[in-house]
Design goal:
This protein is of the alpha+beta class and 820 residues long. The protein folds into 4 domains: 4-233, 2-Layer Sandwich (Heat Shock Protein 90), CATH 3.30.565.10; 237-382, Ribosomal Protein S5, domain 2; 412-548 and 760-783, Rossmann fold; 565-747, Ubiquitin-like (UB roll). It is built from 26 helices and 30 strands. An 8-stranded mixed β-sheet has the order 7-6-5-8-3-2-9-10. Strands 11-12-15-13-14 form a 5-stranded mixed β-sheet, with helices on both faces. Strands 17-16-18-19-30 form a 5-stranded mixed β-sheet, with helices on both faces. Helix 2 packs antiparallel against helix 4 (133-139), helix 5 crosses helix 6 and helix 17 packs across helix 23 (735-747).
Length: 820
């Protein structure tokens, strides 16, 4: 069973045609925009990323069917996303019943897809059970553009707010008539979603899993906002997945146990390995879709594991030292397991696919895993003994912890009625109306106690750093004074069989630490405790992180607190322009217009600079401001040649100033029946190569840049006269000079402080900025990916140094304003 070569889950064609006749329609698209939560869970972070998952899941279905080997996911600068696969391509022929192209059908009708026909349609197994993924993404997007390569042609269709804007049409010929695939680009509608920016780490975490689960499938993720790129391609499949998750842990047996079994149309694939950790990582998947809510495949696995290991241990007299059987919890302590099932008719709880509901799966998994695991233990007795010894140790520790818990309870240390001596409780007795601040240090704790609203805010100051529970057994954890205080304060008890969330005293647990390295470490230690021992508190949304302001602006008697750098700049612009008279080419400008102008210029300038990673800012600025290039210009070769001549002349004349050498080559772009520019930029430090194509010039990010420039164009060149109420007037020859002066002027005579510690604020300041519900900002702690969360805690808080060093090196460049 450990033979990696025989792993299931690799790509193999199912032998089905995929055309319009394989598309079945159950109902029309209705009310998705009004009730998006019904289809994607919510309109916040989870729902936004779920849209990407839906499109990628469709491509993975092609991989499961054996027709797709590579998927590309591109995050564009404007936070639109493109998903490209090399599958068969969405059908482009006319649907026999609906009278429109199949491509339009699957994006405009709910429950239209190749997965509903009674004969199985175009897919034997699929993650897209409900068939609403594509149409829901379309309905919740500002626009969608689809390009399909099929039958030697390039087909294109566009939608706006779920409605067909441009019907399916042929836009080009393929150089290779056998080439197939689909490209879907969509821009989520900002009027629907509360969160507008995709998180690169969230997406890469999900797609890493997808690549592990589909052995041989290559998934490329590229972020054009910062030029990040990752390629996920694993021939080791689930075995490699488990090894990846355990990279920061000490394993107790070298090779992961691998099981791959099937029965009729059901496939069960499992990889598992025990470590010396005290927590379990159990992750389930159904048709490559993650099931964080568990389900019948997980319960079947647990039952088989408990039954078989106990049976083997009894038969081989390995339960010395314990009176009863091993419990499931004993056996799963330190276990990392991936349970993947593939089945023809998925039953999930809702479109968000949280929990597998197929009742028959539990018995199938129980039977197949039980037989396979029994064979493995008999064939590998030394590994079996190691695993059972680990489980027996866990049982003994569980008994010791029970005795320690009873002892401490008799001493009233963990008594529900007691409260820590340092703690300042609130007057409110209703947990839903109460909150507790867990504060770093006595100094900040004293300020918080004085500044709080004692009616509903409690404060618990912690002295120093709490125990790292990632490295400590349960009985040792209960002996830590700071952890005892936290448990006492919450009132829930601790440990399985003792934890009772209904007894929680506060429905807001706010972690408030300094913004320096020590503060971050203490916050991570508290989060590790809550994640490992009180996960229900995070799942129920009770845990928050305080966000004290990073900046204080003081000028004279005026004091303003600002949460981040963007808020600081917006304030500086408004403050500099307020009460001044601004004149442009002899005409007065309203204050609000001037503020918007400076802010818009700043946004335009920063957006341009963001392109310097994968393009060239000087060139892009010249193309927008001086040439005004558009996609249509690339279809006219004579016009493009003139543009190249102008570019050559301009940059050669300014080479001494720019210290850059530009070379331009015109190439044919057959796919889009156009031309493109191949550009090389040489500096003393590097050579950069890229292309300017119709794809970029037709993109929404380029359109956004044009819109920003259009808003400032008339003010770009001309005389600005700045006349403050007091002081001398100033004249500027261009908007750039004026905007730079405005921000610098606001800083004159002002004291701008960046806060490092909570102790730098007095009680009144702490209340106004961090504890007053009317002014404060709190971050709610959520776990959207349990596997990645477990991995991060293991890397940061575990014993293995090398994975932690690698994590620090990979993330060092993301750190800004580090206080040490």
């Amino acid at each position: 069973m450990e033979n990696q070569e025989n792993q299931a889950g690799s790509i193999g064609k199912v032998g089905q045609e995929y055309g319009a006749s394989q598309i079945s329609v159950l109902e029309g698209l209705e009310a998705v925009r009004k009730r998006p939560g019904m289809y994607i869970g919510d309109t916040a972070n989870r729902g936004l990323h779920h849209c990407v998952y839906e499109i990628v899941d469709n491509a993975v279905d092609e991989a499961l069917a054996g027709y797709c080997s590579e998927i590309k996911v591109i995050i564009h600068v404007d936070n639109s996303v493109t998903v490209i696969d090399d599958g068969r391509g969405i059908p482009v022929d006319i649907h026999p019943k609906e009278g429109v192209s199949a491509a339009e059908l699957v994006y405009t009708k709910l429950h239209a897809g190749g997965k509903f026909n009674e004969d199985g349609g175009a897919y034997k197994v699929s993650g897209g059970l409900h068939g609403v993924g594509a149409s829901v993404v379309n309905a919740l997007s500002k626009w969608v553009k689809i390009e399909i390569k099929k039958h030697g042609k390039i087909h294109q269709v566009e939608f706006n707010h779920g409605v067909t804007k441009a019907p399916l049409s042929i836009v080009g010929e393929l150089e290779d008539p056998e080439q197939t695939g689909t490209s879907v680009t969509f821009k989520p509608d900002n009027e629907i979603f509360e969160v507008h920016e995709f998180n690169y780490d969230t997406l890469t975490s999900r797609f890493r899993e997808m690549a592990f689960l589909n052995r041989g499938l290559k998934i490329v993720v590229k972020d054009e906002r910062n030029d990040k790129k990752e390629v996920f391609h694993y021939e080791g499949g689930l075995i490699e997945f488990v090894q990846y998750l355990n990279r920061a842990k000490t394993v107790v047996h070298k090779a992961p146990i691998y099981i791959s079994e099937s029965r009729e149309d059901y496939e069960v694939e499992i990889a598992m390995q025990w470590t010396d950790s005290y927590s379990e990582v159990l992750s389930g998947y159904a048709n490559a879709i993650t099931t964080p809510g568990g389900g019948t495949h997980i319960s079947g696995f647990k039952t088989a594991l408990t039954r078989v290991v106990n049976q083997y241990a009894k038969e081989n007299n390995l339960l010395k030292g314990i009176k009863a059987n091993l419990t499931g919890d004993d056996m799963r302590e330190g276990l990392t397991a991936i349970i993947s099932v593939k089945l023809p008719e998925l039953q999930f709880e809702g479109q968000t696919k949280d929990k597998l509901g197929n009742s028959e799966v539990e018995g199938i998994v129980n039977s197949l895993v039980g037989d396979a695991l029994k064979r493995y233990l008999e064939e590998n007795p030394s590994t079996a003994k190691t695993i059972i010894r680990k489980s027996v140790d866990a049982a003994a520790a569980r008994e010791a912890a029970r005795r320690a818990r009873e002892l401490t309870r008799r001493k009233s240390v963990l008594d529900m009625g007691g409260l820590p001596g340092k703690m300042a409780d609130c007057q409110e007795k209703d947990p839903a109306l109460s909150e507790i601040y867990i504060v770093e240090g006595d100094s900040a704790g004293g300020s918080a106690k004085q500044g709080r609203d004692r009616k509903y805010q409690a404060v618990l100051p912690l002295k120093g750093k709490i125990l790292n529970v990632e490295k400590a057994r349960y009985d040792k954890m209960l002996g830590n004074a700071e952890i005892k205080m936290i448990v006492q304060a919450m009132g829930t008890g601790i440990g399985k069989g003792n934890f009772d969330i209904s007894k929680l005293r506060y429905h807001k647990l706010v972690i408030m630490t300094d913004a320096d390295v020590d503060g971050s470490h203490i916050r991570t230690l508290i989060l590790t405790l809550l994640y490992r021992q009180f996960p229900e508190l995070i799942e129920q949304g009770y845990v928050y992180i305080a966000q004290p302001p990073l900046y204080k602006y003081k000028k004279g008697k005026k004091e303003i607190y600002l949460k981040d750098e963007k808020a600081l700049e917006t304030f500086l612009v408004a403050n500099a322009i307020e009460g001044t008279a601004i004149n442009f080419n002899g005409e007065m400008i309203e204050e609000d217009t001037a503020k918007g102008l400076v802010n818009k210029f700043s946004q335009y300038d920063k957006t341009l600079k963001s392109y310097d990673i994968h393009f060239d800012t000087l060139l892009l600025r010249h193309l927008i401001e001086e040439i005004g290039i558009r996609a249509a210009d690339l279809k006219d070769k004579a016009k493009l040649e003139k543009i190249v001549t102008d570019l050559d002349t301009h940059f050669k004349a300014n080479e001494a100033e720019t210290l850059r050498n530009y070379a331009f080559t015109i190439e044919e772009d057959k796919e889009h029946e156009s031309f493109q520019l191949r550009i090389t930029v040489k500096t003393t430090a590097r050579t950069k190569k890229f292309k300017l194509s119709s794809y970029f010039l037709e993109s929404s990010e380029y359109a956004d840049l044009i819109n920003l420039y259009d808003g400032i164009q008339k003010y770009k060149i001309g005389k600005f006269l700045y006349q403050p109420e007091k002081g001398n007037s100033r004249e500027f020859e261009a908007l750039r000079e004026f905007a730079s002066f405005v921000i610098d002027d606001a800083k004159q005579g002002a004291y701008i402080q960046r806060y490092k510690g909570l102790g730098e604020m007095n009680p009144e300041q702490l209340w106004e900025t961090t504890m007053n519900p009317e002014n404060r900002t709190l971050l709610q702690v959520k776990i959207e990916d349990t596997i990645e969360a477990d991995s991060v805690f293991s890397v940061l808080m575990g014993d293995q140094v090398e994975p932690r060093r690698q994590f620090v090196e990979e993330n060092a460049l993301n750190v800004r304003n580090l206080d040490v």
